[in-house]
Amino acid sequence: IFGAMGLTRFAFLPPRRASEMPAVGANTKMLLAQPFLADTARALEARGAVHLPALFPLGVEGTTDWLTAGAAAMGVPAAAIRAAVEMQEDRARLALGRLRERLVGKRIFFMPDSQLEIPLARFLHNELGMELLEVGTPFLHRGHMAPELAALPAGTFLSEGQHVDRQLDRVRAARPDLTVCGLGLANPLEAEGMTTKWAIELVFTPIQGYDQAADLAELFARPLRRHALLEV
Predict the structure, then answer these.
(1) Digit-coded pLDDT (tens) for 165-175
(2) Structural domain span for residue 118
(3) Which of 66, 90, 146, 157 fits a disulfide with 57 by CB distance 3.0 to 4.6 angstroms?
(4) What predicted TM-score, i.e. pTM, was given to this entire model?
(5) Around Cβ 63, how many Cβ atoms within 10 Å?
């Protein structure tokens, strides 16, 4: 997509081949594709790279903001950015529409696990209409996460750190439609009649970009569909 905008000097880290490592220096601008890259960002900044604040590329909103931040910093005109993303946005929104009806109004609780929780919560609320009961994260980098925090609905309950007993008490009191948590908590909560989503699956599944937006939504729709079938 950057190429369609007319950019020619961009690279991804890590590259597909070790021999293709990009040069990093004072003229380098960087976008983070994942929220758990604080150490990587620090190392690149020590070489002179400048971090570009942006939403993480989850869903249509996040992907467009991420691409726009990078392209605008390189001088790409707004019209060229829109021309490169518009069709992909429309296609992704169409695919998301088929899943929104399964997720809209459903109440979700994020236990802290991977640092993906805040961008995921933003995507699920803003694009799929889910209600955020609590968004827990093991670590909150306020600098990297500032655009995401600004995009959350006002009054979102955030928690940082692993306070499992207290968080489980809040899960049991809230009885959410879906709880995102680690494997060690999923089975006990399922045994109590709650529906869970394994957080680890969100780390190892390709979820960034327009083409993956519907696949990402499906990861949350699937356990709700399974629970509905079991109830019948």
Answers:
(1) 999 999 999 99
(2) 98-231
(3) 66
(4) 0.94
(5) 26
